[in-house]
Amino acid sequence: xxxDDKRQRGIAKFEEVxxxxxxxxxxxxxxxxxxxxxxxEIWSRPGxxxxxxxxxxxxxxxxxxxxxxxxxxxxxxxxxxxxxDEEIDELLLHIxxxxxxxxxxxxxxxVWQLRAEREKAKQSG
Length: 125
Known about the structure:
This protein has two domains: 39 residues, no CATH class; 75 residues, AhpD-like (Up-down Bundle), CATH 1.20.1290.10. The protein starts with a helix and ends with a helix. The protein is mostly helical. The radius of gyration is 16 Å and the shape is globular. The chain is built from six helices and no strands.
């Protein structure tokens, strides 16, 4: 179990990166490690910005075809304003040529779904 300080740093970085408050982690070893290690230590390291790490993460998730996790991270990039629509389009096109057309096509569909949800939310709110 992490120190309270480490847990709080991890939760704060999660909120910065993902754009929402995390779920409760009480007794969940996977979420404990996510906050205490991944966000408190890895996402918080110097040398790369959160935006740099976001681009790396998105590239890997697209190439792996990890649609659910891609949706989470792409949605966070859009919500936090880390990437503009134009930058996302360029990322997808670049990955299509280096990482494969099929995974980039799936990612493109995820992006279009997220954009449609964003537009619907704007219209209703």
